[in-house]
Write a structure and sequence with these properties.
globular, alpha/beta, 7-stranded mixed beta sheet
Length: 234
């Protein structure tokens, strides 16, 4: 099975427990990581931000919660309709349906206009793209000149002691907890495997530059287990 179909099926299978597990497995730090990513955007401007691999809409919701103008909106796209269904329910309950739209779409072939969005973000979704560079170029294409592309993704801490503990948790503890709660251990085995195979922060910075982004910078969060990358469109 090709990667895109495998990942799509996997996320559809764990959708009902996805939000709960994110909170449990990150010890609640996922909310902080999203706040840091959202703070990169102009939250006082009217227009639309794009959330790629939106899942159940947590980044989109964080954007609207922190928006400083009612004219700011979010379009979220994801290839798992089941995840989006849960996201739409959350958005509706929060009274944000007029400002957040969640629709099915392929991150590597966005059916969206050039130079339209104030900025674009993907949170823990880039490593699931079937073609990472193609997805990055698509995000850059649809952002207005002067806008940012923000990438939030897991990485491996460089401190030797933390690295050893991190590998222990990711390789042995996380799959067990994820499997017990979601009923799909394979999905939570995929997570550490995909993180270990993902480019280092330095290499991802290079890839973003190759894809046409400028002024690319990286910030490590929570002892280096998460990296925030920001690139600009000139």
């Amino acid at each position: 099975m090709e990667k895109s179909a495998f990942v799509q099926n996997m996320f559809s299978s764990i959708a009902p427990r996805y939000d709960l597990l994110n909170c449990i497995l990150s010890a609640g730090r996922d909310r902080y990581w999203r706040r840091v990513a959202v703070a990169e955007f102009p939250l006082d401007r009217e227009g639309t931000l794009l959330d790629v691999a939106s899942g159940t809409g947590d980044i989109a919701i964080a954007i609207i919660r922190n928006a400083r103008t009612p004219g700011l909106k979010v379009l979220g796209v994801d290839f798992s309709e089941k995840m989006l269904e849960l996201g739409r329910e959350k958005v509706e309950k929060l009274g944000m349906a007029s400002r957040i739209e969640l629709r099915e779409g392929d991150a590597t072939a966005l059916s969206l206009p050039d130079n339209y969005f104030l900025g674009a973000v993907t949170a823990f979704g880039l490593r699931n793209f079937a073609e990472m560079e193609k997805g990055l170029k698509e995000m850059l294409r649809v952002v207005k000149p002067g806008g940012k592309v923000v990438i939030l993704e897991f990485t491996t801490p460089q401190n030797p002691i933390l690295k050893k503990l991190y590998h222990l948790y990711f390789r042995h503890i996380l799959p067990r907890i994820g499997g017990l709660v979601s009923g799909n251990r394979d999905a939570y085995q995929y997570l550490p495997d995909s993180v270990m195979e993902f480019p280092s922060p330095a290499r991802l910075k290079e890839i973003m530059e190759i894809c046409g982004m400028r002024n690319v910078r990286c910030r490590l969060l929570t002892f280096g287990i998460v990296a925030l990358h920001v690139g600009e469109k000139v």
